[in-house]
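Discussion board: Methods & Data

I've been asked by a reviewer to show the raw model output for two of the constructs in my manuscript, not just the figures. I'm not sure how much to include, so I'm pasting the format here to get opinions. Each protein appears as its amino acid sequence followed by a line of C-alpha cells. Is this the kind of thing reviewers expect to see in a supplement, or should I convert it first? Here is construct A:
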Amino acid sequence: MDSDNNFLERYLFNITDEELEYVYRGQFNKSITDELLLFAEKDLSHTSGKGAVKRRIFFIMVEGLQNVTRHQNEITRDDSLYDGFFVIQRRVKHYIITTGNIIENQNIESLKEKLDKVNNLDKGELKKYYLDKLNSGSLSDKGGAGLGLIEMARKSGNRLYFDFMRIDDKHSYFYFQTTVNSSEDQDENNAGTNTIEIPSSLSYLVQLHKYIIDNNIVISYKGIFTQENLLSLLNIIENQLDKSKLSIKLYNIMVEMLQNIVKHGAMRKGNGAPGLFFLSGRPNGFVLNTNNYINNAKTEKLRQEIDFVNKLSAPELENYYNKVLLYFEEDANTTGLGLIDMRLKSGNKLSYSFHQVSDEVSLYHLRTAIQMKINSIEPLVYPSTEDTPEVRLIPIDGIFTFNHRSLPENALEFYGPILAWLQNYYKNPNPFTVFEFKLDYINTASSKQIIKILLILSDLTAGSEVLVKWHYSKQDEDMFTTGLRFSKLMNVNFELIEY
C-alpha cells in the first residue's frame, strides 16, 4: 500500500477530462441523499447511453443510499469512523457505484453467503430467484438477500463486489460496489465462482476511504467542473452544515474557489474544466483544496499575485480590495478580486503550488483554511487623562489602539491590567491583530511596559498574523527613534508611519 503522501500525490495528479469521481462521507439524511441523487442525475443527463442505462444507474444509487441510511440509523455512534460512504465514478465505458456502512460482525457470514448466491446465478436464474422471493415474501428486515440486492445484480448486469474491514470486536465496515456499462451492449450473464475477487477500483476506494478518515475529508469531487455541478456541490455542503458564521464563510470561499476552476481552468471541455476539490474538517474549522490545470504562461503572474495578497495586513487587504473594486479597466498591475476575497474571508494566507505536467500546462494546487475563533474576551477601554493614554482593545471590531501620551506616576499599576488582558487574548487571538500606537510622549517607565506588550505580540505571531503600526510626528525625532529601536528589538512586523 502506498504511503499517505504517495497516495495523495497519485490522487491529486490523476485528473482527466473523461472521468468523474465524486466522494461523500458523513451523515446521510433526506436532504443530502436528494442532493446526491440530483447531482448524479445531472451528470447522467450528459451520458450518451440510452434511458434504460440511466434508469439502472439511478435505481442502484437509490438502493445503495437507502442501505447506508438504514444502517446509519440502526447503529448510532459518535465516532466519525462509522460515518456512511458514497462514491460514484464515471469511466470511459462504465459507471461504478460504491457505498460503505457499518455492519455488526455477527451478520457478516450470513451476508457473504447471500452475496455469493446472487453472484453465482446467471440472468435467468436471477429472474427466477427474484420471483421466488417476491412470491414468498421472505425478505430480510435489513435488506440481506432481499429484492433490492437481487435487483441491483440484475440491473447492473455485472457481479456485485464487496469487502469487509474489521473495526472492533462488534463492528466492521462493509464496502459494496456495482458496475454498470454506459452503453446497451453489456453482457448481463452473471456467471461466477464462490471466490469474490475485489476489483482494482474497490481496492483503491478502500484505501481512499482510509485516507479520507485519517484526514477527515468530508467531500471530494474530481471531474469536469461546470456552473451546474458547482451549485450541486454547494447545496450538499449547505445541507450538511448549520447556518453558523463559519458555514457562511465556508460557502462563500467555496464559491470563489470552484468558480475559479469553471472560468479559468485549462484543458477545457465544453463549458467546464477538469479539476479536483476536497474539503477537510478540523476541530474549529475547515481546509479547502482545489486542483486544476493552468497554462504554463500564466503561472508566474499568478504566483506573484498570490504572494502579493499574502503579504498584506488586514487593513491593507481592505484598502486594496476597495481599490480593485473601483477599478473598471483591465490592469496588469492589479490582482483579481477572487484571491483578495478568499484571503479576507478565510483570515489565513493562501497556500499554493504548481506541478508542471507538460510543455503546455501545470497542475495548480490552491489551499486555504478557515476557523471559527469565538473570542469571548470583554473589550478593554480606558479614556485618556492628562498622564495616561486612551486605550481601546476591542477584538470583535479588530481595534487595538493607544493614543495621546503615557507618563503615569506608576506605569506598572496602569499597564498591569492591560498586560493581563493581552495574556488572556493570547489564548484565542483573531486571525489578524493590528496594534497602533500614536503617542505624543512616553516616559521611560512606560517604555518598559510597552516592551512587555510587544513581547506578547511577538509570541502571538506563532498562531496569528500581527502588525504593529508606530505613528510619529514629522517633527518628533525622538518618537521616531523610539519606534525604530522597538522595531529592531521585536520579532514582529513593524511599520513606522509619519504624520
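Construct B, same format:
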Amino acid sequence: MKSAQLLPSENLVFLLREIYDKYGYSRYKMNKFEEYDLYAKNKDFLISDSVITFTDTNGKLLALKPDVTLSIVKNTKDSGKNVQKLYYNENVYRVSKGTHSFKEITQVGLEAIGDIDEYTILEVVSLAVKSLVSTGENCILEISHLGILSDVINYVGVPKGETRKVFHFIGEKNIHELIAFCDSLGLENRKIDLLANTAKIYGTAEEVLPWIRENLTGIADEKNIKTFENVINALNGGENGEIIRIDFSAVDDIRYYNGFVFKGFAEGIPQSVLSGGQYDALMKNMKRKSGAVGFAVYLDSFENALSVSDYDVDVLLLYSENSDISIVKKEAEKIIADGKSVLLQREKSDGIKYRTLLEEKDGEVICVENNA
C-alpha cells in the first residue's frame, strides 16, 4: 500500500508553480495533440526527433505533443511592447533520456514572449536559478551568449557554411578538433587562438567578465557585451549567485537560439536538468515579430535523484474494535501536526513499510517498533 504523500518530483512541480505564480506568470494549458507538421518543421528544436503520430478521423496527421514551447509560439499572438509571461505544467510524450523509450513525462517551464528587454532576460534566468535550487540538489547554472560567440566566429573568418560545425566542436568542449578544423580552413593562428580561448571560457563572473571586456571589445557587439555584463552582475549579486558559471560551451542550435543560452546541472545527474535561452530565431521562423526567452525543467532527469522514500508511511497506528476512537483520532491528528504521515489500520500487513509502529491499547497509545 502506498501513502498519501506526494512523490518528490510531484512536490517539485507544485513548488515551481508557486514560484512562477508569485512572479505574475499565467498558467498555459494546451491540448494533448498538435498537427504533426508543427514538429516536422522544427525537429532540431526538439530534445528528441522521435514523435508519436496518428491519423485523425478527418485524415489529418496529428502528434502527441513532444514539446510545449512550439505550441505556445503557435498559439500566442504578437502584442507590441507588452510581454506575455506564461508557465506550463504539462505532460509531453517523447523518448526519455533515462530509458531511451517513449514515456509520458511531466515538464515544467516558462516562456516570456514579446518585447524582450534586459530585465525580462534577468527575470527569466533568475527564475531558472530558483527552479534549480528548489530541487534540493547541489546545482550549477551555466550561461553563454550566442551573439558574442557568433561575433567571434565571424571575426575569425569561419565561412557561413561551416559555423554549425564550429558550434558543434565548442558544445562538445573539443578544443583540439576546433583548432584543427579552423587550421584546415586556412584561418590566421592568432584568430584561431582567440576563438579557442573564448570557447574555453568557464568560471565565475569575477573570473570571466574582465577577460571578455579586455579581449572581445571591438570584436563582439558592444551592446551584447554590455547586456551580458549587466545580467551576469545582477545574477551574481543576487540570491544563489554562487551557482552561476559563465561557460561559452553552453550552446544550442543557432537556427533557433540567439543571445543568452543557459543549462542547469544537478549533482549526480550526467545530463542537463534545465535548459533555456532566447529563441528569437525560432519566432522568426514561425513568422512572429516578437522576441522570446524561456526554459524547461526536465523532471524525468530527476527520476533517480529524487528517489521515493523507503517507507510508505511515517507512522502505522493500529487500533482494535474496542479502541476509543476519540483517542485514536487525536493521536492521528497529533502525528500529522508534527509533519508526519500516518496510516490507521486494524491489523498490520506485510505490504506496508513504516518508520514507526504505534498501537492503541486500553486507552493508551504505545510505541511497538521504531525503524527511524
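Answer (T.O., handling editor elsewhere):
This is acceptable in a supplement if you add a one-line summary per construct. For B, something like: The longest helix spans residues 118-134.
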